[in-house]
């Protein structure tokens, strides 16, 4: 039986890596993927607690988060495509114009 | 990389690399360019924005060779141009030289020539149909087409001993009498072919996928077709009723009744329908001709050494792929001074860019197929 | 000896045995499906097909396998070596993993998962990575275009196929593959008769998912050479090939389980015993069929031209005879053994029947164009599948609320769905005649 | 240590290792592959937690759907340039330190709350059939959020189509 806090450590590790990715990388796709990683870390927490209390509420929330992630990925990738078409770059720090 | 952010680099490359335009090179060893045609496509996603046909991989200098051969010696060479319709090539050349000599083949020879040429037209169209369908992904018609084409090739073989590059005709007529049972063979083939062609049509004509793949694809308007000098089924599918067999009859075509099928839109489907109908009409011509082959000599009296008077001549026939013309200049010697061939495939290929622009990559294959090119003829 | 066969040990050992059997037999089976495909193709195209290696080409798959394994393994320059190596492995692993939940007989199943169907769908949807990464890693335009096409195609048709499956799931009320078959036994009818349109949608979707003609765009040989496989050769290529055929068997297996009654024989719920015995009439059918094949082999054997071919043909006959013997033997064994062996027979028979349809389509239809394929998927199949789903659910609800026969209501539902299908098809026709306009 | 624990630590190590590789890779395709590995490892953790339905959702939706979209987009945009560019931005040190500080905070919270905040709850021996339980919750108590999520998806779909359209 794995203690609950071990799930939290795993989640924390993934969360931190995700945050580091978002804050330090330049490539927008990698940033978007890091956000997915953060969402995923949250899911681990939810499911671990859900298992701890023997219910499924946490899992339902995790499903909502996955839905969210899907929506976010779709719109985010759409934006990246549009961005790439217009600026022909994938670097976040070159997104410095408010309109084009 | 002095700048740690590398912005300079990215700015430079941005001008070099298009956002999503890529160059796709098809051929010269691509399975569906029917030989060694190379097509350079500029694609925007999957859509063609520009195309360029690069030819010449099969150039053998046929026209130049003619200048160093006597008129008879050059005759077999023309078979190697449109090698899937060798008989038609031979007919055009022989008639052109006959015209230059101011003579004409006897009527019996002309009728036999007509029969063989029409059989060759069917064979050529069958090969086109099979490969065209194969390009669009229908795997089965090609075998059916080859089955019938085989029958035609057998008739050729029995007649002159060769199947593909036949050299069936001679300047001034025919070298060989028809063999015993020639009429029966042709008749049997024609009777059989009537329902064979229906068989192909059940596989394709009404098939939703086939219609979807060919309708509205590679449209060529009548004006464009005329401007580009396109001839043959491609022209007729655009709605221009132009067929040299009717317009300037040669061989014995003036004796037979047949229709010139035309369509309006000029898309790939129309070209398909036109060629299918042409096969039917060719079959009818064969049947009419076989009924009554006149008796008489098969060779005009032209002598063994051909020395046409100085002068020039242009003679063209309706080959399976379009107008096949020979322009021959004679300087009075035994060898032509200059021979220039107007091959239908070469001219028709010009229309490719017109048809391909704005279509998808998958359509390019259909469009190459629908023009019905033979690279031996394009490159000569 | 007795402790070795105790149920708890067997529960651990049997799945391993099944897994080994499947992994060992599958390549051979795939090879023979290729042979069948070539033979069927030849028959439809008025020719003979492979005839040289073994009588009627019976040993052709083995020759092909040897050829493939001995071929030079080429990795293109500038290819991404790691992914180039990984991609075919992903493809084949995912294809094999799906077999874990496929019930070939009432007992012949590696794991009866609670979420069996979803598991199979999930793993087979992972197979796409093999294609996409392989296409990208090859560093070639042809491969990349093929891979992108296939990615788009798989994602769109998975949706349609999945929605088609759900109509059958509603009737079964379970996601466990085993329970779905048992539900069909209990209701006394294969689900294809309740939801024929769902079956049709799944069939089209599954053909597209396995990249078979007329949806074989990712590997359209006349357009993109061989699609994502262009740069692969030898062993890696054969892994892709294996994955493709393994996937074909998987989709056929899913269809068999959900719509065609899985391992059940026809009329499984009606029992008519042969007079004087406890053997049922229809249970004798498999043995007679295989016996027929065996006799045909023996009839052909002396007519083979070469001595060795006579021998191989006779061996093939002998093999059939042994199978027939096993099938007959099962008739007199316990019901569990009977169900197991005959179940596997019927399951495989249905799978092959389904695959035969795949081949039939392949040799009849031309290939779709990419945009047409997308239009068919998104604007015809998915709406139709949704309507079908709602109609089937309504039929179920009506049966529950008002009583009456489910069959009657499902027929009504099918009629409604068909009407919608006509409407959709008509709409589609209007669109498809319009020539391709420029994207401006 | 039972089989369960071994598997958990294996999946955890796999997830963390691939995650680290994901954020450090130069090549985005490799990054995507490592993210897929992380997601699959997480799915494995879900399975160990007896959340079968979520495991499948994770695999079908996340790995089979969202990540395919990612890979698709990565292949649509040209990669050759980005390989040569510098991969980390100017605020990388500040960002890294901030992230680590956040991690440290969370670390302390978990460490402190380990005994008080999370009582070692009793896991019922026999869990209800997972898929049915999730379905009951989703279509019962969580009906409204479920509908809202579906509207969110619709909005996202329209948004994605508008964004990705060639010329608006």
Your description of this structure?
Chain A has 100 residues and is mainly α. Helix content of chain A is 78%, strand content 0%. Chain A has one domain (4-92): Orthogonal Bundle (Helix Hairpins). In chain A, helix 1 (4-24) packs antiparallel against helix 2 and helix 2 (28-53) packs antiparallel against helix 3. The longest helix of chain A is centred in the last third of the chain and has 31 residues, at 57-87. In chain B, a hairpin with a 2-residue loop joins strand 2 and strand 3. In chain B, helix 4 runs antiparallel to helix 5, helix 5 runs antiparallel to helix 12 (268-291) and helix 7 (182-204) packs antiparallel against helix 12 (268-291). The model of chain B is unreliable at 1-18 (pLDDT under 50). Chain C is built from 15 helices and no strands. Chain D is an all-alpha fold and 168 residues long. Chain D has helices spanning 3-24, 28-48, 52-76, 80-84, 92-116, 130-139, 143-164. Chain D is globular, with a radius of gyration of 20 Å. Chains A and D meet through helix 1, helix 2 and helix 3 of A and helix 1, helix 2, helix 3, helix 5 and helix 6 of D.
Q: Considering DSSP H and I runs of 4 or more, what fraction of the residues of chain B is helical?
A: 40-55%
In whole angstroms, the N-to-C terminal distance of chain B is 53 Å
Mean pLDDT of chain D: 81
CATH topology of the largest domain in chain B: Cytochrome-c3 Hydrogenase, chain B
Query: Tally the helices of chain D: what do you get?
Result: 7
Kindly provide the radius of gyration of chain D, computed on alpha-carbon positions and rounded to a whole number of angstroms.
20 Å
- Measured as a percent range, the helix fraction of chain D is over 70%
Q: Helix and strand succession of chain B?
A: HEEEHHHHHEEHHHHHHEEEHHHH
CATH class of the largest domain in chain B: Mainly Alpha
The fraction of residues assigned to DSSP E strands of chain D is under 5%
**Number of strand segments of chain D:** 0
CATH topology of the largest domain in chain D: Four Helix Bundle (Hemerythrin (Met), subunit A)
Strand content of chain B: 5-15%
Could you describe the largest sheet of chain D, including whether it forms a barrel? none
Count of folded domains of chain B: 2
